[in-house]
Inverse folding.
């Protein structure tokens, strides 16, 4: 999930940087546009270090880099799906099933560090 937001931010920053090189844009307007972009994609916002400065020509210069330390936390903290639903023909059938996806390697490391275990009786489904 975070990777999708990261891709959106990266593509938008590349377009914005190219636009600033072609046309002189005001620094504060570019900063506001970046702020809106990061707000829309807040899950991956911490993965980027973005700086906007003023060029000699008066336009804006956009410089950005990826922050790897935040990437590790974003990967580890991404949750796994767990949900309960009621199966059966009628409302009160009373048959409950639980659907839990198998945690990724990073999630399993986090579970181990926190001392958490998934119930063994539940059929685990691999995440896609």
């Amino acid at each position: 999930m975070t990777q999708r937001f990261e891709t959106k931010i990266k593509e938008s920053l590349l377009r914005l940087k190219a636009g600033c090189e072609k046309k002189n844009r005001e620094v504060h307007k570019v900063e506001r546009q970046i702020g809106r972009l990061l707000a829309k994609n807040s899950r991956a916002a911490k993965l980027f270090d973005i700086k906007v400065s003023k060029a000699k020509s008066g336009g804006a210069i956009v410089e950005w880099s990826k922050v790897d330390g935040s990437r590790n936390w974003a990967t580890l903290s991404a949750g796994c799906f767990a949900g309960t639903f009621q199966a059966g023909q009628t409302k009160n059938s009373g048959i409950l099933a639980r659907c839990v996806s198998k945690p990724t390697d990073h999630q399993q490391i986090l579970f181990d560090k926190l001392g958490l275990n998934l119930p063994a009786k539940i059929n685990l489904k691999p995440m896609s």
About this structure: The chain has four helices and five strands. Residues 79-125 form one domain. The beta strands are 48-54, 60-66, 82-87, 95-101, 124-125.
